[in-house]
Amino acid sequence: MDSARKGDTRKVTPDLERAVKLAPNYYDAVLELGQQYERDGKHDDATRMLQHALEINPASMKALAALGARAYDANDFSKAVGMLSAAIQLGNSTDKTYLMLGVANFKLDLLDQAEAGLKRALDISPSLGAANLALHNVYLKRYSQNPDRLNLEKALTQLDTYLQNHPRSEEHTSELQSRF
Asked: Which of 14, 34, 98, 117 has its CA 20 to 30 A from that of 128?
């Protein structure tokens, strides 16, 4: 859409709506309209369009990732894990996708999967503070499930070893130091 490239987003939604009305099964237009509805805050319309995009193209990693993000934002972590995992299997490898997957797994108490997702997010974007903090919480939650001193030391050693091997932002370093 030419108007989108020029920054006039007021015209984008009506243009996409016309395109979808003319060709309701044109995958690119349906997907783009779903993403635009999401940006416009029209979450129900976004979900409907993204689900339709997935019906048109069941292997749409973009639709799966967007629907996974919607489920994540709605605190439907089980659904988010399924959709985000499927998007990753289809090739979506953004730090944001792995971060959401890791946090959703954490919320479901799937700590090994949470750790793996968060580490992958950090491999992609080493200074991603939210992933560092979430990984920290994974290790602390492991300790709280079996609160003996050796487990706490092991969890903190795991975190420290991992973080030493991955550069992080100064802001995040200060944030973690203030917690201890």
From this structure: 34
**How many Cβ atoms sit within 10 Å of the Cβ of residue 100?**
26
Residue 92 near residue 61, CB atoms below 8 Å: yes
Question: In this structure, what token pair is assigned to residue 4?
Answer: 């989108």
**pTM of the predicted model as reported, rounded to 2 decimal places:** 0.77
Q: How far is Cα of residue 3 from the mean position of the Cα atoms in its chain?
A: 28
Residue 58 CB-density burial (10 A; 0-12 exposed, 13-18 middle, 19+ buried): exposed
- The 3-state DSSP class for residue 41 equals coil
CA–CA dist 147, 140 (Å, integer): 10
83 with 71: CB under 8 angstroms? yes
Strands (E), 24-135: none
Residue 2 pLDDT greater than 60, yes or no: no
What is the sign of the dihedral through the CA atoms of 110, 112, 113 and 117? positive
Query: Which is more confidently placed, 68 or 128?
Result: 68
Q: Quote the CA–CA distance of 145 and 2 in Å, as a whole number.
A: 54
Here the contacts of 167-174 (C-beta below 8 Å, separation 24 or greater) are 167/126, 167/127, 168/126, 168/127, 168/129, 168/132, 169/127, 169/129, 171/129, 172/127, 172/129, 172/132, 172/133
> What mean pLDDT is reported for the chain?
85
